[in-house]
Write a structure and sequence with these properties.
- It is a single chain.
- This protein has 160 residues and is mostly helical.
- It folds into two domains: 3-67, no CATH class; 104-153, no CATH class.
- 64% of the residues lie in helices and 4% in strands.
- A two-stranded antiparallel sheet has the order 1-2.
- The radius of gyration is 30 Å and the shape is elongated.
- The termini are far apart.
Length: 160
């Protein structure tokens, strides 16, 4: 029985639903139940291991579900999420590389403390004083005060 015949075979859903109490194949080769080529090692696992058959059944069920319009839409949704995630990771890696290349220092002026570093990192992500004022909807975001406070509490140079 070939793959196409088995897809239409009246017992296929029964095999998948019942959990296949035993291996249906006489020998290694194409398995019409799981719709894949099975070598001698996997055939032996299938014949002797209910856990292997159960995992294979679950996989076959998921593959059958993915063939439906809903399954195809879900697969496309997952691909889109993966692409967005990869794009975000790429952007993040670019920013990190720029920060490393810059040495996390202000042009010509070494940072006084953590406040300078935070300002530099946030500006690389596009978070600037003007943006914060725009988001807050008022003039004076107090960024400079926070920067000075962080520099004072976490200075890079040790005091004598």
């Amino acid at each position: 029985m070939n793959r196409e015949d088995f897809n239409d075979h009246p017992n296929r859903d029964h095999f998948l639903a019942s959990g296949l109490p035993e291996c249906q194949c006489k020998e290694a080769g194409y398995c019409s139940v799981f719709r894949k080529f099975v070598g001698s090692n996997l055939h032996s696992h299938c014949q002797n291991s209910a856990a292997y058959r159960g995992a294979s059944i679950d996989l076959a069920r998921r593959q059958k579900e993915e063939e439906t319009p809903e399954g195809l839409a879900e697969r496309e949704r997952r691909k889109k999420i993966q692409a967005e995630k990869a794009e975000s990771v790429e952007k993040f890696n670019k920013v990190v590389k720029e920060l490393k290349d810059d040495g996390l220092s202000l042009e010509g002026t070494p940072p006084e403390g953590l406040g300078d570093t935070v300002e530099k990192v946030l500006s690389k992500f596009g978070i600037t004083k003007s943006l914060m004022e725009k988001v807050a909807g008022e003039k004076g975001c107090k960024c400079s005060e926070r920067k000075a406070w962080l520099n004072k509490i976490f200075p890079y140079k040790k005091k004598d």
